[in-house]
């Protein structure tokens, strides 16, 4: 997420009035000054002389049917992004790769805002242009804002308080807000992706008018470093670097985006994708998520020969919340005690020991790895905030430290499964004939976990086994990725495994995660269907926090309310990125620890690639 100008950061941290409002700003941060100041020249880890060329091959599991990622319908092709510009489009500003909550100029060279945070003005770089040579205009920005606000659930929640965008001049666009004091909002408007109005409002080769609200397989006009060179619907898409890309010499681009070609080949399942990687040619780099595979599968011939390198990159960014998302749109999950019972049956410790080779750490917060994670009992400003809602919150929130079950002994399973049964009983469910049923209606407690990969099966199976021990009829259904995306977008599931990333300065995106409005908006990330006035109020408090201390306290409060309501069953995280790659790359000695690795800073080494091609048939 992007945040405030570095010259304002210390003032904000101290809770002072912004003194530099209405001045133009470029590099920015809310947490503290960017290490580059406002005179950003390039990232300090990149090789500014990195050679351009070569082909970067990737494998994608599933299929695709659209080149429009900003609508709910369709499965977008690799290289597109539902938030941000992906390979095709530039955004107003570019999120930093090596610092949290920092961004640098891209289409916009600077921005400013008044001291009451009632608007924001962005000034476009006069060099910015589309791939057809036409300039990127203020009209493009205004049209893009309107289209995304109307059609993209993410952008709609993100920019909920932005009412309109108007032209100030031929290079300046001003965004108006319906509330003052949203300190984050002026800056995160830099995340706005800019789309070509003249292309989308034009006609295709057959003379048919294009429709930005519908899926399409016509390669769109773009503005970024790559464009679509070729594709085979559902099976392959090839991106080509644009030789006269307008932004190639911008500070955020120096030493990056070095591959001439990026090829994505679609494969139907993860096992086939793994086999493709071991043989070479289709996948040059594999991010690994499976602990078992990382520990035991990387022993194929190319690994032993040193032609595939296995490397761990440590990260310093906040950890995402990965969890079983319990869909409260289903009556089964609307009772907090029943949700708590489900949480008590999840045995992380045994899974970590027997399946994950002790490589994972249990997640205890929705804001893991930051000062924003709640702990102990509420006190100080956080307690003041929560007191306003005491009669609407679980009473133990104020008297007990939130703790997840720890299966650390042979007796633990019996202990926690009994607690789960007791919680189910309080919620009106009893065991009869070995089945958990509703005490009044006899209806069985039956849930289905919806998944799309073998990894989902690994994660879900131990939990299912424990649930069945207390009579819960739990099953797993694995479906193809496209069907999964459609069902997830339409909230057509009992339980899914969801991942929600956080930043060190949460703000407007929290609406998309937790708000009542998002719960009823297809395509939002409120996977659990939370509709809670207290959560809505706390989200607004975060968005309109008066200073850093207020933000931290409000986030602690939100974290605690989410945890004590058991909206999800938290799983685990891993503070490293596992990458295995064919030894065809050159890369900077240093990689950005915040992200772990910046693949865009790597390049193809022709000599290494030639040596691999000579050794392995089909690898080129």
Automatic annotation (TrEMBL):
It comes from the Bacteria. Keywords: Signal. InterPro entries: Peptide/Ni-bd, SBP_5, SBP_5_dom. It holds the Pfam family SBP_bac_5. Residues 1-20 form the signal peptide. Gene3D superfamilies: Dipeptide-binding Protein, Domain 3 (3.10.105.10), Periplasmic binding protein-like II (3.40.190.10). Residues 104-518 form the Solute-binding protein family domain. It is found in: Periplasm. Its main location: periplasm. CDD domains: MbnE-like. Belongs to the bacterial solute-binding protein 5 family. This is Extracellular solute-binding protein. It comes from Mesorhizobium dulcispinae.
